[in-house]
Amino acid sequence: MQTQESGVQYSRWDDRSRDEVHVVAGSGTEEAWSWQRVSRKLCSGKLGIAMKVLGGVALFWVVFILGYLTGYYVHKCK
């Protein structure tokens, strides 16, 4: 059984209940592949480690500044 709408091919072979499912490439595969390449490049290797470290440092400073401002306005003397 093959359906062109869903992009999935399903075939059952042998009587040993082994199923084989294939996902067929659709029209947006080029865009998906480019995003996968960018994601793979930015999230792995030395560049990926550097991006994660920079993201962690940036997140730290955002939380620190928000906490400082919140604490300042909560504990401000009237």
Question: Which class of secondary structure composition applies to the elements?
Answer: alpha+beta
Number of helices, counting only DSSP H or I runs of 4 residues or more: 2
- The outline comes out as elongated
Q: What gyration radius follows from the Cα positions, in whole Å?
A: 25 Å
| Main sheet strand line-up | 1-2-3
Uncertain segments are: none
- Overall helicity: 55-70%
The fraction of residues in strands falls at 15-25%
Distance between the termini: 75 Å
How many discrete structural domains? 1
Number of DSSP E strands? 3
Mean pLDDT score = 77
Give a short account of the largest sheet.
3 strands, antiparallel
What's the helix-strand series? EEEHH
Architecture overview:
The chain crosses the membrane at residues 49-74. This is Small integral membrane protein 1 (Vel blood group). InterPro entries: SMIM1. It comes from Ailuropoda melanoleuca. One of its GO terms (molecular function) is protein homodimerization activity. This protein has 78 residues and is α+β, with helices and mostly antiparallel strands. The chain has one domain (2-74). 58% of the residues lie in helices and 18% in strands. It has two helices and three strands, in the order E-E-E-H-H. The protein has helices spanning 29-43, 45-74; strands at residues 2-3, 8-13, 18-23. A three-stranded antiparallel beta sheet has the order 1-2-3, with no helix packed on it. A hairpin with a 4-residue loop joins strand 1 (2-3) and strand 2. The longest helix has 30 residues, at 45-74. It is elongated. It starts with a strand and ends with a helix. The mean pLDDT is 77.
